[in-house]
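Hi L.,

You mentioned the student needs an example of a multi-chain input paired with its predicted structure. This one should do, with 630 residues in total across all chains.
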Amino acid sequence: MAEFETTEDLLSAAHRAHAAGYRQLDAFTPFPVEGLAEAIGFHKTYVPLICLIGGLIGCSGGFFLQWWPSVIGYPLNVGGKPFNSWPAFIPITFELTILCAGLATVFGMLALNGLPTPYHPVFNAPRFELATRNKFFLCIKARDAQFDAQKTRDFLQSLGAREVSEIEV
Amino acid sequence: MGTDGLQNTPPVNGSVPVLAPGHTYASITDKISAIVLLQKTRRGWWMGLALAFSLLMVLNLALGYLFLMGTGIWGINIPIGWGFAIVNFVWWIGIGHAGTLISAFLLLMRQAWRQSINRFAEAMTLFAVASAGIFPLAHMGRPWLFFWLLPYPDTMGTWPQFRSPLVWDVFAVSTYGTISLLFWFVGLIPDLATLRDRAKDRLSRIVYGFLAMGWRGSAMHWHRYEMAYLLLAGLATPLVISVHTVVSFDFTLGVIPGWHSTIFPPYFVAGAIYSGFAMVMTLAIPLRKFYGLEDFVTLRHLDNMAKILMATGSIVAYGYMMETFMAFYSGNPYDRYMILNRMTGPYAPAYWSLIACNIVLPLGSLWSSKVRRNVGALFLISLIIQTGMWLERFIIVVTSLHRDFLPSSWGMYHPTRWDWAVYLGTLGLFFTLFLLFIRFMPMISIFEMRGLAHELKEKEH
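Structure written out for the whole complex:
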């Protein structure tokens, strides 16, 4: 785990670590840094797909929720209007689409991120509480194929890290 | 919004930046988190809470008595069945809309100036929706049967009438409340982690740590988080427009003169944003003063908000003009009578105060950039606008109902002290929640301000 002062230092360090063949990387920053996830080799996110699926479920479910009682379960003749008066069902269909898509997005994001995580080893890193204030961290995990305690430490040191530390898992 | 809208364009209006110069990530973090963690609770806060909490107790009393006696204690009657309950419901929901608009719509538009006002505007939305929700429930007369509005397979085999806008309202408002809560909470997670890491005592570390759910700022997490936040913004923007459109359907789908009009949805949405931005201003001006946040909520923010007030206020003014014009142009005698009755009938003073509060005073004065940068004047104008928007809903609800087609069914509406008690009580609920929020949660989004500082620094290079 290496600590850096600025986003530029962290970004270039992440790029060089990735170029050096390290694949089990993670970085910790106090705010989203553009391009950092790509730099550590993380491109794909399933959040939009989850959102879409949630939206589709909400949309079809919402319409069915109104169609079934109005046409089959409890048909009421109101002024001779058709039972399946679909334009009147659009507002609720729309609201439920948004509701399900929003819930799916948030809970999907949390699930993919593995949150809540009450305990995580990175919290033991020295000065890690500054990762939510003003410092930037790069982490190379020990399960990386190239990992070697001494070499990796020297490598991180050579990237211009302010401090390098080892965390017990 | 005009040219000012572009992100970090050299300020057109003098040279007031969106973030006072000289701030670093650390100074932003420390300053905002200190309000929650380090500063002593202030005397002014206690006094505010005492006042708000007393009003909240008035709400308890008024609702308790209402449930005991029924809606007869209110001034509503036949023909005016809607009264204060619906006036206040629409007013509160409208106020909420600015919060969502600031956090969602301005995010999509990449407006850098939203970062320092979105958090408390979102909180304002939540609490306004909570206050709004009380009214339709209380107005039902038998609120313990509210679940009859929800579609569930009951033993009688009946279902709600899905073609009714009142049922649409249930879905719109509950979806709106849920999505606003999600948006607010998702935005809070990284800041709760900051508070957890900065807290000195064990209790706050545990509470904030619990709420932050183990957020550690991992790059992969941020990646998904930003995507989710953007998607939520994209969902919330059409939602906010749909909610007030559905609220306006409650009126337009009736055949009452003055309600049955196609201009209502856009004009309701604009009016909602108008009153909501006024409320953001009413809250922002004292907050930045008492907590010394002038560096973060600068005159630029107030100026931009004043411009949005002008834009939405003009749309509202256009709505009033069209309403009057259509009443005559349509040739419908009932519509024509309704407008003449509004302007000259028993509620004429309310109508003309509404025109003064919503159009003449704000739109007359906000054109001047001096007024837009005069904090005291803005505060006053924001209060005037909220009064005006409340009167607007009063006029729409009451004047249309009190004289419809048959003179034999005409009547008058006079609010009783219980009407006022419930209204003041919801103000108490709103301000109690808001004061608790500014004491225990970061009222400005810390991580977004750090991001803003980063962006501004990059622009310099």
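You could point out the following to them. Confidence is low (pLDDT under 50) at residues 1-14 of chain B. The longest helix of chain B spans residues 165-198.

Best wishes,
N.
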